[in-house]
Amino acid sequence: MIKVTCLGAAGSVTGSNYLVENTQGKKVLVDCGLFQGGKQMELRNWQDWGFDPKQIDTLFLTHAHIDHSGRIPKLVKDGFRGKIITSPPTVELCQIMLLDSAHIQEMDAEWQSRKNKRRGKKDMLPLYTTGDAAESLQYFSPMERDQIITVEPGIRARLRNAGHILGSSILELWVEESNEETKIVFSGDLGKQDQLIVKDPYEIFAANYLFIESTYGNRQHRSFEDSKEELLEAIQYAVSHGEKVIIPAFALERSQEILYLLGEFYRKGTLPNIPVYLDSPLAIKATQIFRKNKKYYDEQARAIVDQGFDPFDMPNLHLTLTTEESMAINQRPGSAIIVSANGMCTAGRIKHHLKHNLWRPGASIIIAGFQAEGTTGRKIVDGEKSVKIFREDVSVKAKVFTIGGFSAHADQKDLLQWVSHFNESRPRVFVVHGEPSASETLARLIHERFDMEVHVPRWKEILMLEAREVVREVKPGMVKPSDISRTMLNKIIDLENELGRLKKRLKEKEAEAKIIEGDVNRLNYIQEELQGILPE
Ligand SMILES: [Zn+2]
């Protein structure tokens, strides 16, 4: 029997880490991420692994985000000497991400040590050092996607495009046990349809077991076009007040997406003529890697390149590498767009920009990414009147624009759409990588729609996976819905979601102005059509 232990991103969104073992005791790991978001969560990084790193020969890494890769230096420090199999862009991105993460660990430890000293306590050591991070890089082994490789006798694997960030992958894993092969699919983080820069997630049709992320399992993103408009409005709002636009963005992917959109505004002539700062050394380096890896772009990004543009550039763009350059930004009066890290406002240069601008009426704060519980970013989104930055209470007077449509994650609709391809093979589904309410909601919907067995594992839960038939037998007494009624059920759930959104929009003031009489007629038409399907 195959054993999977959920050692991270189970019941939470960070710390991704799954241990897969076969009966012969061969062990492979999937992801090795850092737990983030609050003290309690971060303490988990220091705990025992739950396995011996020396005994692991293979680690599959889905992508370079720190919540998936950030404990690799510690894994190597604790004895791992195997191969880290991942896509070529992920190898390049990890080279900068892990060193940066180590630097943050060192600074945190130094700060804590100084505090401890004053209290007569011992020094604090970092979780790992830049030396550990540099050391870990030699174990990376790039593997192009779409090819099957044998990693151990009886264990085969293939990476597929996950459409989440540059280089992100889904993992297909085949484990052979007494001549029976079990296929386990780990979705990794899935991108949404029409994600910028990268291609849409690869559609997989067969699996015995499926581990699926659920970051947005209970939410629908706003439409992307609306979000683009909102971004422009948020910029114009600050410009009209002569204030700054602050965009907290993860150095990896979100920063490049924002640049990509600003570039698009520029080419269309709608971008106000103000300086744009990419104020994050890590984001600047990541952007270079994006520029290099054109072969992984989607069609739209390629078209921009073919027209002779750099998708991440515009004439007013300033890349501020040094601290002095960064500090000078807030000395300069007038409007500017500042894209800075980190994305949840918990560390990095963004904290300085928030300290200088959060209290200024007329400034814009654009929250365009996921904000975990307990982070400063989440507090700003939740409308707190003041937040603590550098142990100082800063009041929130700037206008906060929460723009949902830029997420690099699939939303509920995208996730269900992606799962729908497994309709024939009916895997047993484990819903992971989500806050409990998001995972539970997605689990319920997957069960209702596709009649699949679904479970939401707890942190550290051990799952025993038996070799199983691909198509599950229908229990006696249970009516298996026909394809047509299942398709209809899916449509009804989509409709319910759309109606829910419409209802919500109607309660918003700005939406009211946009409603026209024709919309009422359209609703009447839909209602009549519905009545036609099931006449009384
Ligand atoms: Zn991710």
Short structural summary:
By secondary structure, the protein is an alpha/beta fold. It is 37% helix and 19% strand. Helix 4 (88-118) runs antiparallel to helix 5 and helix 13 runs parallel beside helix 14 (436-450).
Give the SSE layout.
Elements: E1 2-8, E2 17-21, E3 27-30, H1 39-43, E4 58-60, H2 66-69, H3 72-77, E5 83-86, H4 88-118, H5 130-136, E6 140-142, E7 149-152, E8 155-161, E9 169-177, E10 180-186, E11 209-213, H6 224-240, E12 245-248, H7 254-268, E13 276-279, H8 281-292, H9 299-306, E14 317-319, H10 323-331, E15 337-340, H11 350-357, E16 364-367, H12 376-381, E17 386-389, E18 392-395, E19 399-402, H13 412-420, E20 428-432, H14 436-450, E21 454-455, E22 462-465, H15 483-506, H16 509-514, H17 517-533
Parallel strand pairs: 3-4, 4-5, 5-6, 10-11, 11-20, 12-15, 12-16, 13-14, 13-15, 16-19, 20-21
Antiparallel strand pairs: 1-2, 1-22, 2-3, 7-8, 8-9, 9-10, 17-18
Helix pairs in contact: 4-5, 4-8, 13-14
Bound molecules: zinc ion.
Report what the structure shows.
By secondary structure, the chain is an alpha/beta fold. Helices cover 37% and strands 19% of the residues. It contains 17 helices and 22 strands. The strands form 4 sheets. It has a 7-stranded mixed sheet with strand order 6-5-4-3-2-1-22, covered by helices on one side. It has a 7-stranded mixed sheet with strand order 7-8-9-10-11-20-21, with helices on one face. Helix 13 runs parallel beside helix 14 (436-450). The longest helix has 31 residues, at 88-118. The model is unreliable at 470-479 (pLDDT under 50). Zinc ion binds next to loops.
